[in-house]
Each structure stands twice: as structure tokens, then as C-alpha cells.
Model the fold of this input.
Amino acid sequence: MTTFDGNAIAGTLNAVFGGEMTTANGTCACCGATEPLAQLRVYRDAPGVVARCAHCDAILMVIVEKRGIACVDVSGFAALEEPAQL
Amino acid sequence: MAGTALRRKLIWQPATVTGLVAETSNTRSIAFAVPDWPGHRAGQHVDLRLTAEDGYQAERSYSVASAPGDPHVVLTVERLDDGEVSPYLDDELRIGDEVELRGPVGGHFVWESTCDSPVLLVAGGSGVVQFRSMLLHHAAAGSTVPMRLLYSAQSRETLIYADEFTRLGGSGGIDIRVTLTRKNSGTRPGERGRIDRDFLTRTGLPPAGEPLGYVCGPTAFVETVANTLVDLGHRPERIRTERFGGTGTS
Done:
């Protein structure tokens, strides 16, 4: 399985959140680390996108798109910044 | 108008192939004309979408290889034999064909020519793609800040942009150092071996100058290089990383 980081899902994040998210900070609810979403460890071989914490490997976010509808689970974050203006 | 600018909605736009350049035996650069391209920053990405006749769609993310001022959007695609998208882009796509692009996206791994820090770029293999954009942008903007690229490839045959980099290496502030990692990579002069602590110490920029570092390549490469740079005294917050960016994913 190939690991990418959050840079590789910049387009998906933009489409879901409505703005640039790779520079937005997210705080892991499991270990408390805060990093820009560009640093997420991203797995795209699954039916959707699975993003894990770079520090403790906890699942932070899952995005599955089907028939034009995106199902987004961000329950792994304790905090998540709003999208930035590019 | 920056303060009142509306957030631009990200949409898929048609892009027409206007140029094809074979970079290596399995990598080629594709130039697209995109009528409503809003312009990008060096280091940004774009999503590419293909639609089959039966409606099946596949999307991939690519780094933009062209400079912000270039008239075309250029992507460099490495063919992965078990891939779904890259074999089509590398073998089938012809001049005049149309695909869809969505972008530019990403704000983390970008370089602005207004930044006056020295820049250290470290690439493993196809991770070099967005560094082409940064180097061309540096040259076009007439920047004088030192920009040094350390680039490792398996062999001379797998080097992307070799001729272009030779030309760019002579322009003000730009310095490109290539190392070849495969055991039997020829007898011509030049660096051999991986980008390790010794190579970074000898050829990198000194931490005292507080350079901005950009590291892109396969995940293990990026982790090793970024950790070594920190060991050598570079501040972690000055180092930006991208894992396996470059020529997309399957």
C-alpha cells in the first residue's frame, strides 16, 4: 500500500471544504498533535480516502465520494481550522 | 481587491493537449491549453480527470511542472505499468485530445519569488517535478536568492529534465547537484549514491543561512532526508515535505 500525504488530496479537500485546506491546521483527538493537513498520512487505495495522524497513526478523516455526494468523517480531529484563502 | 476577492469555486475545466515531450523511456511531459486557467503558484497541484465512453471516470493528482508565467500548464507523468491512468496519459494521449483539470490546489508546498531566503530543494526520482516549476519561476522572475537542487535518480537514463537543468544550472543563483543511486550507473564523472547525511553536509546549504527546505519523493526518502536536515541543524518549521508527489499515482 502506498502512502501519500495531504498534498495529494488538496483538490479533494478543496472540493469538500470549499477552500484551500492543506495549510489549515488539524489537531489529533488521539495524541493532541497539531499539524497542517498537508502532513496527514494519506491512503487512497481504499474505496475512499483515509487520512491518518503523522504522529500516532490514528484515523483522523475518511472521505468517500459516490454519485457526486461526498461522505466526510472528521471525527478523528479534536479541532480543525477553516479553509484558507489562496 | 485582495480583501474583497471572492473565493473561487473549484471546477473541472476542459484542457487540450498542445505538446508532448518524452523525458525518459517511461516519463513524458504533457502541455495543456486551459482557456480559463487562473494561474498557479510554483509547487501547486492539479487534479486530472479522464472519462471513458461508458461514463467511467478516474481522477489523479499531479504536480504542475510549468512555471506560473508559462502559457501552458505542463504535467510530467511517470508511467506505472499497473496503473489505471498513467499508461493512458503516457501511451495513448495525442495532441488535440481533451481531458479535464481541476485546480490549481494546495498552498503548503509552494515557493514565492518574493521570498528572500535561500532555498534548498531535495528530490528523489519523480519528486523533482514541482521543483522544475520553482526553478523556472526563479529564472523567469530574475530572482537572485540561492536556489540549490539536490536530485537523486537511479541512473542517467531515468533523469527527468536533464538538458533543461543543465541550462538552468548556469543562471543566477541556481545550482543543481545530481547523484545517481544505481550501482552500475556509468563511469562519467559526478556524484554517486543516495542523498544521505554525508551528501547533505557536503552539498546542502548551511543551516546558519536559515534556508527554506523543500523535500519531495517517496515516503521513506522524504522521512530520511527531512530527519537528517533537522539533525544537521535546520529548523523543522523551515522544512516542507511532500511524500510521493510528482508524477501522480497509478
User: Anything to note?
Assistant: The longest helix of chain A spans residues 10-17.
